[in-house]
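Tokens as discussed.
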């Protein structure tokens, strides 16, 4: 028995839910996939799949085995890519993490172009506003909004800066009035991005003078897209990135407040960074994706 081939057959059957679908993915005859899985079960002395005429599902033992087998195959693919991706055409699997709104609004419209330009890269995109651990989540490149300094464990490359805007809908301003000074925000319904602490301070800088305002409101969320929708609905005032709201402002759907101020939540920096592990230095795949994101940002400016 070719153990590696058997593991691949087993994982494909588990993920596709059938021998026929797995055989198409592997470009093998269905009978070959069945024989590989049968041989694997025989060598292990246990049943990995519950099989009926209608469906194939993992047994309890199969579920446990799948987790380990999948990781082993992923590690092998990473090992192959780590030595084959240092020269020539970028190739191999590439897992990236991108903030939800930034990924869907800025990156997603160009993904097809990236795949066309790099036909040998297998792209796995994870959209999340959480700070992911590159090691445990097996992320090759993480795009993050906000300051992220390089450390011994993570390399950070600054791609660009952006502006944050304090915005409200015309309906909200009509109903509640337009604050003319940052301090007046304390009396308004402020929609906040979840940063961990319930208390959030918005900082305003103009002509070297800094003003800090503790803002409160009945809504906080872990995605800026939801806050944008709440602003459009007249729920309150939010501090959002310009790339997310500039079209709404231009269309008159939002009113930008405190235009002359540099605004930020909890002193957070308004920068876009690409993060990757030190062992990815020189990776053609990683470099290709970072260059791709940089080119999109340049075209938006």
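Sequence:
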């Amino acid at each position: 028995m070719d153990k590696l081939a058997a593991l691949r057959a087993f994982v494909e059957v588990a993920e596709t839910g059938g021998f026929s679908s797995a055989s198409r993915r592997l470009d093998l005859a269905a009978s070959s996939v069945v024989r590989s899985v049968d041989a694997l079960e025989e060598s292990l002395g246990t049943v990995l799949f519950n099989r009926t005429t209608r469906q194939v599902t993992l047994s309890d033992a199969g579920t446990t085995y799948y987790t380990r087998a999948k990781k082993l195959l992923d590690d092998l693919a990473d090992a192959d890519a780590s030595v084959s991706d240092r020269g020539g055409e970028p190739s191999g699997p590439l897992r990236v993490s991108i903030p939800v709104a930034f990924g869907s609004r800025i990156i997603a419209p160009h993904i097809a172009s990236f795949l066309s330009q790099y036909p040998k890269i297998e792209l796995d995109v994870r959209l999340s506003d959480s700070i992911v651990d590159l090691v445990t989540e097996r992320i090759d490149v993480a795009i993050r909004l906000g300051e992220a300094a390089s450390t011994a464990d993570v390399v950070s490359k600054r791609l660009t800066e952006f502006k944050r805007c304090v915005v409200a809908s015309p309906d909200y301003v009509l109903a509640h009035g337009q604050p003319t000074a940052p301090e007046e925000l304390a009396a308004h319904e402020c929609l906040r991005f979840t940063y961990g602490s319930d208390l959030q301070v918005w900082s305003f800088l103009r002509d070297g003078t800094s003003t800090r305002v503790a803002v409160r409101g009945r809504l906080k969320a872990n995605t800026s897209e939801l806050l944008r929708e709440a602003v459009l609905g007249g729920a309150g005032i939010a501090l959002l990135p310009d790339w997310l709201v500039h079209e709404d402002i231009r269309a008159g759907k939002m009113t930008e407040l405190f235009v002359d101020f540099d605004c930020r939540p909890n002193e957070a920096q308004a920068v876009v960074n690409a993060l990757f592990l030190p062992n990815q230095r020189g990776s053609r795949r990683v470099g290709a994706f970072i260059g791709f994101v940089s080119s999109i940002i340049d075209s938006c400016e």
